[in-house]
Design a protein that fits this description.
Layout (H helix, E strand, L loop, with lengths): L7 H20 L29 E2 L2 H4 L7 E10 L2 E10 L3 H18 L20 E13 L2 E11 L5 E11 L5 E3 L9 H9 L8 H4 L5 E4 L5 E6 L7 E6 L1 H7 L2 H10 L23 E7 L6 H12 L4 E4 L1 H6 L1 H9 L3 E4 L12 H19 L15 H7 L3 E2 L3 E2 L2 H4 L2 H11 L4 E6 L3 H5 L1 H11 L2 E3 L1 H4 L10 E2 L7
Parallel strand pairs: 3-4, 11-12, 11-16, 11-17, 12-13, 14-18, 15-16
Antiparallel strand pairs: 1-10, 2-3, 4-5, 5-6, 6-7, 8-9, 9-10
Helix pairs in contact: 8-16, 10-11, 11-12, 14-16
Length: 488
């Protein structure tokens, strides 16, 4: 038989409620007809008439605690959205786009719903997160089981009002890491078993009509490898805290659907691993978190570029390096160091000319020689380019054969050669989704990076690569890009 526990006070309250309902049945009157309800007896399995039980135990730390998933990495957001102070945490998994897309859609739905009427959530709302607000909205999505080709994710939403009111809801989703399919936890159990499960959660028999039982959502179900099934929900009369009913393997087996039994089989199999994703290509949704793409031109330089790599590693930041072919050919080991560290690399021509002043064959030659140098040094050909000085007309755009990544913020670091000048300039002009131009061949630029990165991260910016910044936006050869487009 399943295990349930609860506070003595809550149990007494529900027992009293059951007694009152039974008394009403016995008294009958015009409102009810029929013979008095017979005495209740214990049942050895889940049925439509389970025994009266005490209120289940509060949600345990074991269920709340996320599990480690190969390729999983956590994200967090603090934002002021409408009248809500939002705290969000969630987990992405490399190589499982179905899960990542689902989590993104779920989060954006919540954030849009919290935004002022008629508006939509924007990442800039995360930059004023310290403003006072009327409600606290805490959301999380974290894996709680992972085995075979299945990851179970619990999604929780907790709202705290100014008057002390608290509500909490949670659901689980089951993700197939091979097909990408995402299905709700409610699909684990047969529909006809749901009323019996609800009855056990409130401690009121199914035979006694009560709206309380009907209000309990059965969508947060965690199936364990042992066959036990934990069902969690916020029960009316217990606001702000979920309660959990744990069914043993025999009970769970009696209510599982064919899909539920398939999941149980997967949970007892070895986890399927996926190829590692390069850090510069890891999924980050820049419609949710405020992002900035720091880019560095003219390298690699054997002296300054490794210094920048060390700072980026310390700050756990991503960046993009637009390399010239001449410097790549002169410093192949440094170029390889950049690539091996997982950073994105772009073509910045071979000799750094004004492309608009060259004939088209010469433009193509600049691109080809640089591609060859970068391929020889790193093993990969860059998929994007940056024209020196940002000089590109229609003819150049048609000749380069790659997307052109320009910039939204020009640090002018090469001009001032002074961190006290270019760092404040970047901080003043930057907005979520911006591409920032700097140069890794300037020692003074390197000197300002620790301050720049730490300040941006403290403000709430996620420092990403250009591919991460534009994920979901196809980068078309010959087109110019300066910043991520705003979500419509």
């Amino acid at each position: 038989m399943g295990r349930t526990r609860g506070s003595v006070a809550a149990a007494c309250l529900h027992v009293l409620l059951a007694a009152i309902c039974v008394a009403a049945l016995l008294c009958g009157g015009d409102s009810m007809s029929g013979a008095p309800y017979p005495a209740l007896h214990a049942h050895e399995r889940v049925s439509s008439q389970p025994e009266t039980v005490a209120l289940p135990q509060p949600l345990s730390d074991a269920l709340d605690g996320p599990v480690e998933v190969p390729g999983g990495y956590g994200m967090a957001l603090t934002a002021h959205v409408g009248e809500h102070h939002v705290h969000a945490s969630w987990t992405y998994v490399d190589g499982v786009p179905g899960l990542n897309t689902h989590v993104d859609s779920w989060l954006l739905g919540l954030l849009d719903a919290a935004a002022p009427a008629g508006g939509r959530y924007r990442p800039a709302m995360a930059l004023n997160a310290q403003q006072p607000s009327g409600q606290e909205l805490t959301v999380s999505a974290a894996p709680v089981q992972a085995a075979g080709t299945v990851i179970i994710v619990r999604e929780k939403v907790r709202t705290s009002g100014t008057g002390g009111t608290v509500s909490e809801r949670s659901e689980t989703v089951y993700v197939d890491t091979v097909s990408g399919a995402v299905r709700g936890g409610a699909e684990l159990v047969r529909p006809e078993a749901v009323p019996g499960i609800q009855s056990r959660m409130v401690g009121v028999p199914a035979q006694i009509a009560t709206p309380v039982r009907q209000d309990i959502p059965v969508g947060d179900l965690v199936l364990k490898p042992s066959g036990e099934l934990a069902v969690s929900a916020e029960v009316p009369g217990n606001p702000g805290g979920n309660v959990t009913l744990t069914m043993n393997a025999a009970e769970a087996g009696a209510v599982l659907t064919d899909y539920g039994r398939q999941i149980l089989g997967h949970l007892n199999a070895a986890a399927v691993t996926h190829p590692a994703t390069a850090p510069s290509a890891r999924h980050v949704n820049c419609d949710i978190v405020p992002c900035a793409a720091l880019t560095y031109d003219d390298g690699p330089d054997a002296r300054t570029t490794p210094q920048l790599l060390a700072i980026l590693a310390e700050r756990k930041a991503q960046a993009t390096f637009f390399m010239t072919g001449s410097n790549t050919a002169a410093n192949p080991a440094t170029a390889k160091q950049v690539a091996d560290a997982g950073f994105a690399i772009g073509n910045h021509t071979f000799s750094h000319p004004y492309l608009t002043k060259l004939p088209i064959p010469a433009v193509k030659k600049e691109m080809e020689r640089t591609d060859a140098a970068i391929l020889a040094a790193t093993g990969s050909t860059p998929a994007m380019m940056r024209p020196p000085y940002g000089a590109a007309d229609a003819a150049v755009q048609g000749a380069v054969g790659k997307p052109l990544i320009i910039w939204a913020v020009d640090s002018l670091d090469w001009q001032s050669k002074n961190p006290a000048v270019f760092v404040p300039k970047v901080l003043k002009e930057i907005t979520p989704g911006a591409v920032v131009l700097m140069h890794d061949v300037q020692p003074t630029t390197i000197a300002g990076q620790q301050e720049l990165m730490s300040t941006l991260q403290a403000q709430g910016y996620q420092l990403v690569s250009v591919p991460q910044l534009f994920e979901g936006t196809p980068l078309v050869p010959g087109h110019v890009y300066r910043s991520r487009p705003v979500r419509q």
